[in-house]
Write a structure and sequence with these properties.
There is one protein chain. The chain has 219 residues and is α+β, with helices and mostly antiparallel strands. The chain has 2 domains: 38 residues, no CATH class; 167 residues, 2-Layer Sandwich (60s Ribosomal Protein L30, Chain: A), CATH 3.30.1330. It has 6 helices and 7 strands. β3 and β4 form a beta hairpin.
Length: 219
Amino acid sequence: MQRKIILAALLLPLLTLGCNTFQEMPSYFGYDSYWGMFCGCTQHRTEISPETDEASDSLNKVYARVRNDFANNGEILEELEDSFRAQGFELKKELDAGGNTKRLIAIIDGDLSFPTGSSKLTPKALEIVDKIGQGLAEIPNTVAKVHGHTDTPGSYQGNKILSLKRAESVKQALITRKGIAPERIVEVRGFADDRKIIDTTASEPRNRRTEIWVSFKGE
């Protein structure tokens, strides 16, 4: 009984101080404090590298810039937690397990962007590309990939060529209209119908699209 009283007397000051006691715990233990590890009342520490933090912050700034451009232009936006849609356009964030933004994917409606069978961007598509380009211009530590997609009807080889030409048109618009350095467009590809959103061989507008993938430089 006497031992229990002594033990309680020793632990009482620690209980009063709480889980922030002994903060100088080495990070490799993975807890915020020695007392936290002992009592189990603090969560296991999750390390976020400065690089991850910078990448996520940069991509979130691009997202906010593009979103605000649409809103300020009077566009009607449908907003979800990690994406928004406007007429003929969607921008969404891809998050890692820690909730940090690791990539942005901009999806431009192919029917809005190009006349049938053409790789010439419409005026509306140029407006959209300009908004994305402005975000890239303001956050220079980002890079982009441009991917063209078609649906299934027609010649596969013809669709492959057309989807690549459309992706090239978007790349050239980013370079010539917003001054994006060519080396920041790190990939341009045409996929024809190899990456369908809707699994069908019929004519499907959602499969006809151009995507711009934005990531942090070096990722």
